[in-house]
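Incident review: delayed structure delivery

Summary: a single-chain prediction request sat in the queue longer than the usual turnaround. Root cause was a stuck worker, restarted by the on-call engineer. No data loss occurred. The affected request and its eventual output are reproduced below so the record is complete for anyone auditing the incident later.

Affected input:
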Amino acid sequence: MNSANDHEFSLSQIFKKYNTIKKNKTQIKKIKVFSEVTFQPSDIITDYFARKFGFSLDYEIGLYDQMDYEAHNIEENKINEYDFIYIHSSIFKWFISDEINLYDESTTRLDIFLENVKKICKKNSKSNVIVNTLEYPPFRVRGSLSSRSGLTFRVREFNNALFKLSYELSNLIVQDINYISSRTGLDEWFDYDSWAAFKQPFSEKGLVALSQSLASVMASTIGKTKKIIISDLDDTIWSGIVGDDGIDGILIGPNTPKGELFYIIQKYLLFIIKSGVIFSIASKNDNQVVSDVFKKRKGDMPINLELSSSSKINWTEKSKNIKEILLELNLLSDSAIFIDDSELECLEVETNTNGCIAISYKKSPIELIKKIDSMGFFEITSISSSDKSRTQYYKDNKEREKLIEKSDSYAKFLESLEMKTNVQWKLDKHIDRASQLTKKTNQFNLTQVSIEKEDVKSYQANNNKWIVIADLVDKIGNNGIVTVAFGLCKDKKLIIENWTMSCRVFNRGLDFALLYEILAFAKSKGLQEIHSSINKIQKNKFTHNLHELLGFKLTGKSDNKYNYVYDLKNFLNNKDNESQRRHYIKVCK
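Output delivered after worker restart:
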């Protein structure tokens, strides 16, 4: 499908498409670029790919090859103004210079470059600073010896130092151009004529690959990457049509060349599932036959049905099945990738499932994972314990759905879950998860204000700020940390700057339970009112009436922003008072 094949487009095609979409309104992110080489036209190409993740870029591009100057002279009024700072370079610049010492351990220009990175990160502690690794040089002057004492060795040394620095600085994010250039191929990565004319060293393929990568890294940082991959079965994760070829007739595993290719695909899917991506199945097939395939061919396949958070195996249109899967999992259609061997099925899905990207292949099934990987749909900058357990969370939700069917009422179901929540005002080991929730949560996200890890720490350290997180545990399992709220205390008011909650615990009463804890916290500080607001957009329509349900009163609105107040005089200590809705959750502190 066109939406997943942009890495095959020429620059002229991308520019043509960009001119048609650049007028579309999106969430805007400010970015400052420090570049040791000419950055244009990567600015346009990166913005094009960023728009596919639902945001656009407002650039401020620094002077060419003036990073030393700009690193020391960022205007005070612009410190922490940017959502992203991109520090960009290429080994080609260093290849033709005399600034890298190849002979001894003395300080090199690359060491100074790293020092500048450190200064920029510390000065702009609230901005996401992205720095690319260096690609290998276009030529190895010393042959294999270059890996031990030449420029190739220096590149490896620099990249290792950059990765090490990213562990020390929480706002430093590494873009691995070394890998991207290797995948593209160094012979097709550089353009010597472009360098000679414009001091821009990349070929068309290099520019597209670099820009795709940068857009996906930024998307991951702000929680805009995809969340779920939904897969067909026949000729998608195994070779053959099980209804025609039979269980023993399909090819999967290392015993045949075709089977080996699909084994590689399944291994790739397994890796991204273990990284926190949700996996589901939508296939036109007989449900019992498919179940028998996974049982009988279990030893041949890395993937099994237990890894699928929701499976729709029937003869219904795939778009309808995908919509049902997303509804069950409380996910939006633009968070989904669908893979299928049939271009017609992909067209049907993209036509009828707004925002879902469908990917097929023409010659080899390996094209599926090449497209997914090159577009960076599932790029991540970190993995939390919650990410690793995501499949289990959704499997547990299936068990909860069975309980709903057996219960006389929804209230009885909630009561039967024996829920409890641990409300924490000191986040300790959950700082990363708190930040992640503000970025990756869409449907229960009141104001779309996100916070970085350093922000989380500042909210804990400042007496005029507050932040709270909570998990949700029941007799089926532990959902992990699923909600975070934060804000300010001033003028006898507690202000909720934002409140987010994972979609997997919707309609369980945790919103009421946490609100009552926030109200109690405010009352203990002698505050009189709670102020909150919501930006009513399509993605968070689930929460459009949340404030009214919780007992807030509307005080005014401007465009899509609605402002509310909760009078603490109405808040009574007795949690069983009829004025407060019962939530069936035991609160632990």
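Verification: Residues 574-579 have pLDDT under 50 and may be disordered.
Action items: add queue-age alerting; document worker restart procedure.
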